[in-house]
From TrEMBL:
This is Dephospho-CoA kinase domain-containing protein. It holds the Pfam family CoaE. NCBIfam families: dephospho-CoA kinase (TIGR00152). Belongs to the CoaE family. InterPro entries: Depp_CoAkinase, P-loop_NTPase. PANTHER family: BIFUNCTIONAL COENZYME A SYNTHASE-RELATED (PTHR10695:SF46), DEPHOSPHO-COA KINASE-RELATED (PTHR10695). The keyword Hydrolase does not apply. GO terms for biological process: coenzyme A biosynthetic process.
Amino acid sequence: MFLIGLTGGIASGKSTVSSFFHELGCPIIDADKIAREVVEPGKPAWKLIVQHFGREVLQADGTLDRPKLGNIIFNDSSKRKLLNSCTHPAIQREMIWQVIKCLFKGYHFVVLDVPLLLDGSALKSFMNQIVVVYCDEETQLERLKTLRNLTQEEAVSRIQSQLPLSEKSKLADHVLDNSGKLETTKAAVARLHAQFNSSYAHWKLRSVAAVLVTLFFGVCTVCVRSLL
């Protein structure tokens, strides 16, 4: 099994591309979904957020007030880094655990949907291929304003908090332009899926896994025999 890193910018259409891969039978490990799970009330990441940001970022039921927290971090890079330090370790641990489960289920490859993969994520070095979902700046801005009901200033602030899509594209192995029609994007995803499906990259990881498993059982056998 090998790892495909799927990323993009806010409102670039990454989730749409992820859903197209899912429709083709690809296992998707969604960092955003995991990020919501690790900050549920009472969990370690939630406690760290409350410790650093105070209970004013909580709603009456104890869940995070995401709009309020978003306004704090998108206008202050130091606060954004602080929030990431509270959540990213837990997110990455869960993603690694899900990758291991996919490996033992025998999947050819797995798609890791990580919004900030190229914005300093430690997961980047583990990716065999990186796919960036791109759209032009005007489309990205209009989509974000519509989807999040944001003002021009708020939308621009959120976009500027991330590495520009033009820069992310330079770091990609594959760039999917999602500025146009969905049918065009879907066809591009299907072509990439076929390319990944025909790759032999997964055998490298499987060979390493087989060696490690063999060594593990060899050590266990030696230990058991020494006790007899």
